């Protein structure tokens, strides 16, 4: 997984962004402390004041015994630190209980965690994040050298307030250092609003404190404020707060005991997808690669080790937070318990247990004692997350708090559909939330898939989307499937974006097969709705069962194995990767994530079947069908005025997705994850040239064609905005919506990655090199399709003029500025084709029979291209 850094408030927090599961771990380095956490005044200096007796400091306070006993009197809170626990590691986690409700700042989210310890320096108590990234286990001198070479990080510092208690052998520290910004949330706030908010400690406070034998928890409410809002500039103040100058954020801090007996770690294998804790081990000099990856997994042990099927000593318990709507709780529980099928195959009965948090509970499911599933709401919150906190020494998962956005009810889906409709589907609208790369988009996208499916079935007259039947048949199953996906992350599994390709296309139309086996090979894929074309047999609509890959990944992570034969058995399990139904690809393979360009057309989000290109063509046909039927239907009296508009825009969302799927075939490479010596398969296999040409035809004759996007004037003129709550402005712009999808396809086809792979293609084809699709063929095919009116001598309508400007703008930029990613041969071919286009434009510009708009467009294009060809290139 790629890593994304949030740095702020004197603290850097590393977030693993593999999709749905964000896995915060201890940072490699950080500055001393947040300003709020640094003590002020004479008490900050060792020896500046005499320490008071322990009992005098806490006179009149109430104590809660626990891992770190907590003392409270009115608004003051003290942490009792036993001297025996100094320098002893524990898990410190910070989870977000309350937030702003927009732009990535949501409640109910897991945040950072560290392996930390208290260190006393004179009369100062330092809270230190331990550096476990570099180790030399078993080599004491080298371990000492590593500790000297790589620094720990200071999270906070606070004065010691008392002398040592004579019986308790402990001292007191003021807990107010937790009213500082330990997680660096201020940086996220600034990134979201382009505006600096300061932490106001005066109006920050402790809400609750709790302590138990293995954990102490403190809930705080932090106040962030800015003295004034700028009148202009890049700032985007929050819109969800009564006053944009002020808001509160709640954190739940847990100080939790680490396992006294560390769990036996299990090595990762790249042929399967598990989240990992990684470190550099310099003790084993015989290894060429010192990096060690331990998979993240819960500690699961059989109560009866000799029984074929046994209850676990300690099951994995997921608490359903009381904020989950009652109507969805059964589906949420079913999504958790479905995973027991995989654990039963490896000898565990009831490995996962679901419990409901009581309505009157005095504890928060965000503390480190309770793995949980929570509902959350935000003005633009559309994602679900399945994060966890783990012990980086072994990879043992210690806590997980799954967050599910409220995007499944009809009202919520309507809101997000309108928001999408206000922007172009290709992403040409509002800025992406700062958090988006680090989050799983499954909940948002599956809600959009649900809407599209209900729309198609509704306009076909097969289903009324407003009926309880639709809610029961579709929404409940979608929630179950979404929870299964996120629980998979919380169990340590990454995305598998090849899971859907293991089901043959013809099987998707088989109701019996799809009901029994589902429509995908993995619930860890982003699985689309299985919609048949009109007149075809209809299989199961959605996927809410475990697939072959899910059983396999759980077996590797959790199967009880004798330590003496673990390496051999794990190698045997992983060697099954050659089985077709166990195909695997992660976020990087799928692309569009962390700067990676996906090269494998079989690794995708939201496709179905073993032929993604065929699936893309079917989705285009379904969009055309939806548009045709919605233009023919007469909206019933009393229907939501925005419904017609949403139907139109939902079709464009599918067009954009089909364009993405098809464009990955051009210059595509099918990739497998075999290790050397384990399989005769090649790691990279170029997509067959015939299939690349087929994908290019689909784009040029479908996506780039004006005929694909013809709408009746009377239909477009009858699409009102919501006059009472303006989320959309004015008429729908079909050209803008079309251009969003077309521009994304052009970006891909003219990218440096595609150019390099097409130029390299003959090297991979051997004797079939003559059949290769060349880069020149792609450039000329795209150019001829985009500018086809030049050969025909016909007028150019607005849709096509927009597309031609987008193509010409990209060509002109590359001709004048060059590109570090584009190979020299590609730049030469672009110039060669641009000269050919210039000649065509000259001939066409002299045609006085064309409309004024067309003549103006041609002259403007000719001038722009001429300047680009004459300009001196500034090569990157």
UniProtKB/TrEMBL annotation:
Pfam families: DUF4953, DUF5117. InterPro entries: DUF5117, EcxA_zinc-bd, MetalloPept_cat_dom_sf, Zn_MMP-like_bac. CDD domains: ZnMc_MMP_like_2 (cd04276). Residues 109-303 form the DUF5117 domain. One of its GO terms (molecular function) is metallopeptidase activity. SUPFAM superfamilies: Metalloproteases ('zincins'), catalytic domain. Residues 469-791 form the EcxA zinc-binding domain. PROSITE patterns: PROKAR_LIPOPROTEIN. Signal peptide: none annotated. It comes from the Bacteria. This is Metallopeptidase. It comes from Caldimonas thermodepolymerans.
């Amino acid at each position: 997984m790629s890593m994304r850094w949030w740095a702020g408030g004197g603290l850097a927090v590393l977030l693993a962004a593999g999709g749905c599961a964000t896995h915060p771990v201890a940072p490699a380095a950080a500055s001393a402390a947040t300003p709020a956490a640094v003590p002020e005044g004479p008490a900050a200096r060792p020896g500046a004041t005499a320490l008071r007796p322990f009992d005098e400091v806490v006179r009149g306070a109430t104590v809660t015994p626990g891992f770190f006993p907590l003392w409270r009197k009115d608004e003051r809170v003290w942490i009792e630190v036993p001297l025996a626990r100094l320098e002893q590691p524990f898990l410190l986690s910070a989870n977000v209980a309350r937030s702003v409700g927009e732009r990535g700042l949501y409640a109910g989210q897991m945040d950072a965690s560290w392996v930390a310890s208290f260190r006393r320096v004179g009369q100062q108590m330092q809270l230190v994040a331990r550096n476990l990234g570099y180790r030399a286990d078993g080599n004491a001198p080298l371990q000492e050298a590593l500790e000297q070479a790589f620094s720990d990080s200071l999270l906070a510092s606070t004065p010691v307030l008392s002398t040592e208690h004579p019986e308790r052998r402990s001292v007191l520290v003021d807990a107010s250092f937790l009213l500082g910004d330990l997680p660096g949330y201020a940086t996220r706030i600034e990134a979201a609003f382009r505006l600096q908010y300061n932490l106001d400690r005066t109006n920050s406070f402790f809400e609750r404190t709790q302590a138990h034998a293995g954990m102490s928890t403190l809930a705080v409410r932090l106040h962030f404020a800015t003295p004034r809002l700028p009148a202009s500039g890049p700032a985007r103040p929050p819109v969800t707060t009564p006053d944009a100058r002020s808001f509160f954020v709640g954190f739940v801090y847990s100080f939790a005991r680490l396992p006294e007996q560390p769990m036996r770690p299990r090595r990762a294998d790249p042929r399967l997808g598990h989240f990992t804790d990684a470190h550099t081990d310099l003790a084993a000099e015989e290894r060429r690669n010192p990096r060690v990856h331990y998979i993240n997994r819960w500690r699961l042990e059989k109560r009866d080790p000799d029984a074929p099927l046994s209850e676990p000593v300690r099951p994995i318990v997921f608490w359903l937070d009381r904020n989950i709507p009652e109507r969805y709780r059964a589906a949420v529980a079913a999504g958790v318990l479905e995973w027991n099928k995989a654990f039963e195959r490896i000898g565990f009965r009831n490995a996962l247990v679901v419990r409901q948090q009581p309505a009157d509970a005095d504890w928060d499911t965000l503390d480190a004692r309770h793995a949980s599933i929570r509902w959350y709401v935000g003005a633009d919150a559309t994602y679900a997350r399945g994060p966890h906190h783990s012990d980086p020494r072994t990879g043992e998962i210690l806590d997980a708090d799954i967050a599910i956005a409220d995007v499944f009810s009809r009202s919520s889906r309507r809101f997000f559909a309108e928001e999408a409709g206000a922007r172009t589907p290709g992403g040409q609208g509002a800025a992406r939330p700062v958090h988006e790369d680090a989050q799983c988009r499954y909940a948002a996208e599956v809600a959009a898939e649900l809407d599209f499916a209900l729309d198609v079935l509704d306009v076909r007259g097969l289903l009324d989307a407003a009926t309880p039947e639709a809610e029961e048949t579709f929404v409940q199953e979608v929630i179950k499937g979404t929870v299964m996906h996120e629980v998979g992350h919380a169990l340590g599994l990454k995305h598998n974006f090849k899971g859907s390709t293991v089901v043959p296309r013809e099987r998707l139309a088989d109701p019996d097969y799809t009901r029994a086996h589902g429509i995908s090979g993995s619930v860890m894929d982003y699985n689309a709705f299985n919609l048949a074309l009109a007149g075809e047999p209809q299989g199961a609509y959605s996927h809410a069962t475990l697939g072959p890959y899910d059983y396999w990944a759980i077996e590797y992570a959790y199967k009880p194995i004798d330590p003496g034969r673990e390496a051999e058995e794990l190698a045997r399990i992983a060697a099954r990767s050659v089985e077709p139904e166990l195909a695997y690809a992660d976020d990087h393979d799928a692309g569009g994530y962390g700067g990676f360009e996906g090269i494998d057309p079989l690794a995708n989000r939201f496709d179905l079947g073993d032929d993604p290109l065929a699936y893309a063509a079917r989705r285009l046909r379904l969009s055309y069908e939806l548009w045709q039927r919605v233009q023919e239907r007469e909206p019933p009296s009393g229907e939501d005025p925005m419904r017609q508009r949403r139907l139109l825009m939902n079709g464009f969302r599918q067009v954009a997705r089909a364009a993405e799927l098809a464009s990955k075939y051009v210059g595509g490479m099918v990739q497998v994850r075999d290790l050397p010596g384990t399989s005769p398969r090649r790691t990279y296999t170029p997509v067959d040239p015939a299939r690349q040409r087929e994908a290019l035809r689909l784009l040029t004759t479908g996506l780039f064609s004006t005929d694909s996007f013809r709408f009746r004037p009377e239909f477009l003129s009858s699409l009102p905005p919501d006059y009472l709550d303006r989320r959309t402005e004015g008429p729908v712009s079909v050209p803008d919506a079309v251009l969003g999808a077309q521009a994304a396809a052009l970006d891909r086809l003219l990218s440096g990655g595609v150019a390099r792979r097409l130029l390299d293609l003959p090297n991979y084809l051997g004797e079939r090199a003559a059949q290769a699709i060349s880069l020149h063929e792609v450039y000329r095919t795209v150019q001829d399709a985009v500018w086809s009116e030049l050969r025909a001598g016909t007028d150019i309508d607005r849709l096509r003029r927009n597309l031609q400007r987008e193509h010409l703008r990209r060509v002109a930029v590359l001709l004048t500025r060059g590109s570090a990613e584009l190979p020299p041969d590609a730049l030469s071919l672009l110039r060669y084709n641009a000269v050919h286009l210039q000649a065509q434009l000259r001939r066409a510009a002299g045609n006085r029979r064309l409309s004024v708009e067309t003549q103006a467009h041609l002259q403007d294009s000719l001038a722009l291209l001429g300047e680009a060809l004459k300009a001196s290139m500034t090569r990157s």
